[in-house]
UniProtKB/TrEMBL annotation:
Region of interest: Disordered: 73-142
Pfam families named in the record: DUF5719
Biased composition (Acidic residues): 101-127
Protein's recorded name: Uncharacterized protein
Amino acid sequence: MNRDALRRSPVLSLLAAGAALALAGALGTLGGGESAAPPAPAGEAARAPVVRTSLVCPRPTAVEEAATYYTAYSPAGEGPAGDSRPGTASLLPITPYTPGTDEENPDEDEEATGEDTDATEATDDSGEQPGAEPVVESAEPGVPVAVNVKNDEATALAGTAEHRVAPGWTVQQSSIVDTSGARGLLGTACQAPAADFWFAGAATVDTRHDYLHLTNPEDGGTVVDIELYGPEGRLETGIAEDGVSLPGRSGVAVRLSTLTDEQHAGLAVHVTARTGRIGAQIETVDEQLGVDWLPAVTGGTDGRVLLPGIPADAKTVRLVAFTPGDADLNLSVQLVGATGTFTPAGNESLFLRSGLLEAVELADITQGEPGSLLLTPEDSLTGPVVASLRVTRGDGSKQEMAFIAGTAPVEERASVSGNVLDGTELSLVAPGETAEVRVTWSAASGGGDPVTEEITVPAGTTVAVTPELPEGAKGRYAATVERTGGGELYAARTLTVERDKIPMFTVQTLPDDRSRVTVPGTGENIGLLLPDD
């Protein structure tokens, strides 16, 4: 029915009016809890909490004798008001998929490629394991839920949080590998599914074993395209036309070195889903430096990139950067340190040629103080920048690595879970003006009470915060960071676990949790009730 026909129908006009009034009433109940803002005037947009959040967790590392821990958390006081339905959140297992099996091919029967992908055999043709029970469940905001799993039984996970526990729902996945040749702490925040991802810092050299984990949480299949970029531009992969087929509710791990014959110590990786939304993360195994997850970049669309959370005792810092835009970019390089911002001698700027990857060794840039790296365009030319840091701690054979990806700022609020009682450090960064911050350390999964502190981050500095938890705290807990005033704020969290004098560690950035959305304003329009002549 066209627009004119709709206007000529009094019955449909009344139905439309009723629907609009119902929608206005429904929107009036959003934004809830004690933190709800007063209703916006008629016709003006309002901010309200989301009522549904989706997350995807990659399959844990396949290294033997590894243990994986999940911690789920939703901040308190943010759920939609007036919603009588209880909040629920759960993550269900995703079936591992082996390309070349008899499972249904997605997207017009395109054949899967990459037979050398490292994935376990599929356990069920339907994609979702029959009778599967949730691996992680939570129903109460403000209360973290911790679950341990054995890696030989672990799969990728996907799920949703609804109603009271939806705003700010976050899940941390941490694995400890304590074997020779592949020891370390792998940490990652489960991610919202998307159609496009960029990574910087992958590798295909003999001493690195990088696996791109692709997870499809949707019922329908899709095809995923993978592009690799090195110092001389885009690499030939042999799957440019076909892509990688991924059936509904399945996951696969693609070893990057099987996609190209070229060996590179630094690569940018572009992952796109032709239809639907997926999860994508890169597991890195370095024969000398341990293991960790290389996360997707979430900031840098305008050429300005901040990489927060470089530990004070970092031994080496390696920057890998790439611009996929049409223009070359000249970027200034600065360290936002504990006492101010300065330019590292010998690395004052970085020139990025369009489509060509650059890698820079920054050595011990922090000089014993916590810091964050800031890249800023030096002229009027701007464009997207994909950048990550590989950071090492320890000496000799006891070195351990972690990755820090360029991240988006904390506009309103961000949370991170999976914190441990000993070995947690929060980095707060104000690259411009002074920022006012409220940090809430939640109750732990095994007991204790939440603790809140107000922190001022001076302009141009990185502040490292170690939690002071009350007596009785047991288990794992979460941290919520709120920007209460001032300038831009960035954040990261470092977990450290020492084994045999090896400082195993991992760093997760805290982009804004996007727990509030803008709701269009509504107003009275009597014209909806009157038919056109």
